[in-house]
Amino acid sequence: MDNTVSVHHEEHAGGGTKEIKRITIYLSILTIVELAIGFYMYKAELSDGFFKHFLKGVIVVLMMWKAMYIVGYFMHLKHELRNMILTIIIPLFLFIWFIIAFLADGNSYKNLREKYDPYHVEKATLAAPAHEGHGKHDTTHEQHADEKPAHHAE
């Protein structure tokens, strides 16, 4: 009776070193394209229009494409099981969401600090409503000092 466990191991597709060189060159080309677009946007001094936002979108797509390759090849997730990939990718998306949320919060704080004036005093624009009984004197039920109390007949 044999009590040993045999583990089947598959080699990665591709030639190892050849694949790493190919992916590194591919990522370098993507980086050069990103930088070229960024330098063009900087030198052309584009106004905040559709074209500038389109170029920024292209840069973000290229960055995500590079991130996919880095995670897939250099973290060896391309050759892993689907559940293992999801265990790493889902927290990665949460981490990206945290970064976006913190950047938005920091930008909001920065904008508020720029508008803050420590010497500004806000004055009320609405007048306070008049309260009944404080200004006018209601004398219908009061008894003056020179009057005698009224007696009711029985």
TrEMBL record:
One GO cellular component term: plasma membrane
Pfam families: COX4_pro
Organism domain of life: Bacteria
Membrane-related topology note: Multi-pass membrane protein
Signal peptide range in chain numbering: none
Region (Disordered): 131-154
TM segment ranges: 23-42, 54-75, 81-104
UniProt entry tagged with the keyword Nucleotide-binding: no
Keyword list, A-Z: Cell membrane, Membrane, Transmembrane, Transmembrane helix
Localisation per UniProt entry: Cell membrane
Primary localization: membrane
Name used for this protein in its record: Cytochrome C oxidase subunit IV
